[in-house]
Model the fold of this input.
Amino acid sequence: MKIRKAIITAAGWGTRFLPLTKTQPKEMLPLVNKPLIQYSVEEAVKSGIEQIILITAMGKRAIEDYFDRSFELEHILEKKGETQLAKEMRDLSSLVNIFYIRQKEQLGLGHAILVAKEIIGQEPFAVILPDDIIDSEVPALKQMIAVYEQYQTNIIAVERIHREDSVKYGIIEPKPVSNNVYQVLSIVEKPEPDQALSNLGVVGRYILMPEIFDALKVTPPDKKQEIQLTDALQILLKQQAIYGYQFDGVRYDTGTPAVWLKANITFALKHPVFGPELREYLGQILHQF
Ligand code: UTP
Done:
């Protein structure tokens, strides 16, 4: 079955970015000249997704306004002769069909996915965590959809991590099956390095079968009272195969302030307009620090 729908989870508090996120969603922080959330939406569109279900929460209205049409702004731009800019604003609001659902209580990533159950129905779907920006030639989700087409079951994105960082990731116990593809034998959320069964950590892209919803419903909350997707995947493993796919590309966890800054510098250096000026500037100031 074709992957038509993608859930983008954007309901988290973003506490690591306080005070910035006190009054604005972290998904609206810039990555050079676009808000972070736009990269996820564009990746979904380029991967053939037809419907996006964006999970939001209190204080996240700026995201809805951003992808909405602003006739007033377009009119003002047209009047000023800024026809190209007016077109860009129109194009932005017609990128894709977006449905918004509010997660009324922030009870974890697993719970955020569960609130989209009715709108997903009985079909496989994608999940994108907008914090994880993946810079790649072929969009990461598109690569995963190709793997899904081969295996027709749950596919989760994995990457090699430093063992001491296992406490930040879901870690899989892998059985290699082909180039960059591993069958998941078990999966554990945030194990201590000496307990981790590999150095393959799960990152923010998933293709999931609809049976994940039944698993999520019976997943007990963790110590922080959050329902973890990883725990639901471990339950799902008892009835369905899950494959880990090591994607081609560089991932930036922009939910971490230092990495967000690094991603901004890297993307800006690669940008055709800002790159040359920034490179020169960095060359001038670096020796001062
Ligand atoms: P994080 O673990 O990064 O949490 O969530 P967070 O709240 O966004 O950020 P910090 O840790 O407070 O700084 C991982 C993903 O799960 C979503 C987040 O929006 C992010 O995409 N999420 C998390 C939800 O949608 N709902 C939740 O209840 C928790």
